[in-house]
Specification:
With 268 residues, this protein is α/β, with parallel strands linked by helices. The chain has helices at residues 4-7, 23-34, 46-58, 73-86, 110-138, 159-179, 206-213, 224-235, and strands at 14-18, 38-43, 62-67, 92-95, 141-146, 184-191, 194-195, 222-223, 246-249. The protein contains eight helices and nine strands. It has a seven-stranded parallel sheet, sandwiched between helices. A two-stranded parallel ribbon has the order 7-8. Helix 2 crosses helix 8 (224-235), helix 4 (73-86) runs parallel beside helix 5 and helix 5 (110-138) runs parallel beside helix 6.
Length: 268
Amino acid sequence: MTDYRKLFDLTGKTAVVLGAASGIGKSSAEALAGLGAHVTCADRDRDRCQATAAGIRESGGKADAAACDAASAVDVAALAESVKAKFPRIDIAVTTPGLNIRKTILNYTEDDLDRVINLNIKGTVHFFRAFGRIMVDQRGGSLIACSSVRAVTIEPGLAVYGCTKAAIGLLVKGFASEVGSFGVRVNAIAPSIAETALTEPFKQRPDIHKLYAAHTVFNRWSSSDEVASAVAFLASDAASYVSGSTLFVDGGWTAIDGPPTGLTQLTR
């Protein structure tokens, strides 16, 4: 009989999480370390990234920190090489940073467009190239990117951001098709609304906070830990036959057409 607990065990594996200073990236680093992996926590914010790694070590896990701008091809390549020099393998590589400049298309500037595309799309390609080469050479590994429900559902002011998140889903499919024969898996998560430091301002607008919660079947926001659990699954051997997929961790956001109205109780 298969030892299913062992499938989720990451003991002895090495992982890199880019975006580990806060939010979903921070929780993902903690989740992977909690399952036994040695995690390199990377982020443009060096101090907060080091704090994430320190917190993991204080909890008995293994972690170190590195500075890296996810939008910089040079930085991402250097990060991959530095981790490769420390460990015989890189088993897991996760990238979570993304940028949303909420404006209508008519109000988008050239600089706005460059900033969003450079981080969300080009940054994902840089990450896949840098860590994908290493995983192809070692003939195995799990790459995980971060899409969004905005890849498939939209509202005014999110068109550019949404199209970059949809592009990530296709990058995942395309790269999975290219590296699968080398034992490398490529997937993405697609969160909806998560309680993080970045979304804290929404709590200052209770009407908006409740409106977004009502888009889910649970009528609440997720915690970043709930999203990180999906990252941990995709990183583990439990997902050994999962590649080219985007796992929606959206509380049912994409299952219903906006906030439910009228129906307040189930009938039998």
